[in-house]
């Protein structure tokens, strides 16, 4: 499974099986996290951001509990994102989603969680002086997804935006038929993105051949994670080679 297939197959998993993740796969995820942490420190040294994997530490053998049964089944491991400003949150979104896609390739499900975890049950809420901002639950799906979780998934899908709602050309509204095929591939991948609070706030613009991403109607600071996640999905699906400017509007700078 390549990364594009992983983007297509990834779902926000809200029900977990009793089966724990094998140590070999946890080691692969940890190696990828080590690389991500080094890259984040290199591209934005003034905006520290750190990812970790947290494992079982509670009496019941799990790693975290949910407040309102928004996720069911045992969560044995989660990925934690530590950061304290908008740029750092964007980095956690971008590089955290790389880990999510690797997990998908390994057959492991995941879900970005910004608000519904029981903070008292977390392994820690600070790391190297940085506050915990978000977690990503990881684990295997049960053979049968509980009815309530299917209902949540259906409700979220009904709120999915249309392509024209997240694209502009020269700063003005446009339609997919007026845009190049590679741009539409990127938009389709963004529509499949996980989001921190199940709202997709990112809009992509194409002006003079340059793509940029921004959140003109940002309503919550946790949507900074969505900006990073969306930039990664667009970049991979559109086959862009280069780097994103951090922040918004962040342009994609094509490699020479």
TrEMBL record:
It comes from Lancefieldella parvula (strain ATCC 33793 / DSM 20469 / CCUG 32760 / JCM 10300 / KCTC 3663 / VPI 0546 / 1246). It comes from the Bacteria. The lineage of its organism: Bacteria, Bacillati, Actinomycetota, Coriobacteriia, Coriobacteriales. SUPFAM superfamilies: FMN-dependent nitroreductase-like (SSF55469). GO terms for molecular function: oxidoreductase activity. Pfam families: TM1586_NiRdase (PF14512). This is Nitroreductase. InterPro entries: Nitroreductase-like, TM1586_NiRdase. Residues 2-238 form the Putative nitroreductase TM1586 domain.
